Amino acid sequence: MSGLKVIGLAGWSGAGKTTLLARLIPLLVARGVRVATLKHAHHGFDVDHPGKDSHVHRQAGASEVIVSSARRWAQIREVEEGDEARLPALLRRLTPEGLALVEGFKREAHPKLEVFREANGRPPIHPDDPRIVGIASDVPFPQAGLPVAGLDDIAAIADLVQRLAEPLDAVLARLETA
User: How far apart are CA 25 and CA 27, in angstroms?
Assistant: First the structure.
C-alpha cells in the first residue's frame, strides 16, 4: 500500500466497532500493513491523569501539552466549545503511509464499512448512506448490493477493508466539499 488509505467503521452503539477493530488490527499488522486509528468520542475524555505532569500543566492553563519519550509522544490540545476538530484536519495529522481506520464520524463523507449487529434492534445504516461501501454483519444482506462479510470472519473483513479503503487525497477532497 503506498500512501495513506482511509476507511471508517460505522454502526450504532453496541454494534461491536471497537471489538472488531481490536481483532482486525493485529491481522492487518501481520499482513505488513501500518495501521493508524482515529476515534471520535461523543463526550469529554482524558489521556492524562491527576498527579501526572501533563495533567498539572493542563490544569494550570496550558492550551497544548506535548509529552515525549524515547518510545512515543502525545499531544493534548484544549479546544473551546464548538471548536471540535473536523475529520479532514485530524486525517492530515496522521503519518501519510498505511491504512487509517476511522471509528465513528458516521455522518462524514468518507468510505465506511458498516458494522451491524441484529441484536441491537436498530436499522441498518447502509440504505441511507451512499458512503457505506461494505458491511460486516451477523446477518446476511443479499439485497444491499454491497460486499458483506460475517462479523466473525476477520480475514474476510480485513480483505474488504484493504480493498475498499480510498486514498487520503480523494477522501479529503470529498470531505472538504461536503
Answer: 5
Residue-wise pLDDT for 148-159, tens only, equals 999 999 999 999
Residue 33 in grid coordinates: 500493513
C-alpha cell belonging to residue 87: 475529520
Cβ contact 54:67 at 8 Å: yes
Sequence-distant (6+) residues with CB within 8 A of 1 are 33, 97, 98, 99, 162
Does residue 141 contact residue 126 with C-beta atoms inside 8 Å? yes
DSSP, collapsed to helix, strand or coil, labels residue 112 as strand
Element (H, E) at 136: strand 132-137
pTM for the whole structure = 0.87
Using CA atoms, how far residue 38 sits from 9, 21, 78, 90, 143, in Å, is 10, 11, 17, 8, 31
CB atoms within 10 A of CB 167: 14
For the chain, give the number of residues. Answer: 178
